[in-house]
Description:
By secondary structure, the chain is mainly β. Helices cover about 15% and strands about 45% of the residues. The protein has a five-stranded antiparallel β-sheet with strand order 1-11-10-9-8, with no helix packed on it.
Amino acid sequence: xxxxxxxxxxxxxxxxxxxxxxxxxSKVDIDNAEKxxxxxxxxxxxxxPRQDTSWTKIEEFxxxxxxxxxxxxxxLHTTAERDKQGNLMWDDGQKWLLLVxxxxxxxPLLFEYVQLGSVYFTVSKDSVETITKVTVIVSTGTNLxxxxxxxxxxxxxxxxEPIYDSKEDNFIYTTIxxxx
Length: 180
């Protein structure tokens, strides 16, 4: 009996050692290995991008984004309309616009069609440089994307910095609330 236990322990030890020594193939995607984050500059326009389309305001927040000591208006808009009770009438997809208005200048941070999804934003201050950042979250049934925007005084525009863009998956559950 003692010999059997010893043989089993030796076999178990050898199995663990041999399995631990096996090499696994590492797959490296060369195209993504050194992918550089490309930043985009959003410059001002004197034309209000809301003028040619019927937009519904979802949220609005006043804050000094361009560091000129004057509050700017940050507004989130969609082409989904409201019914008589004020409920949003969502379609399979709609255009979304996140717009900064600084007096008579307009900066469309996000201006895109979102299929089966919603757009959200946060506003925060960088603790080191006291730069106000706007982070946008675009959530659809197959993708989650986060992008950050901050005003660059030297370039006189908002820089767009991609933070996260998920692979296309079919999400089966989310706790992100919907707009009412």
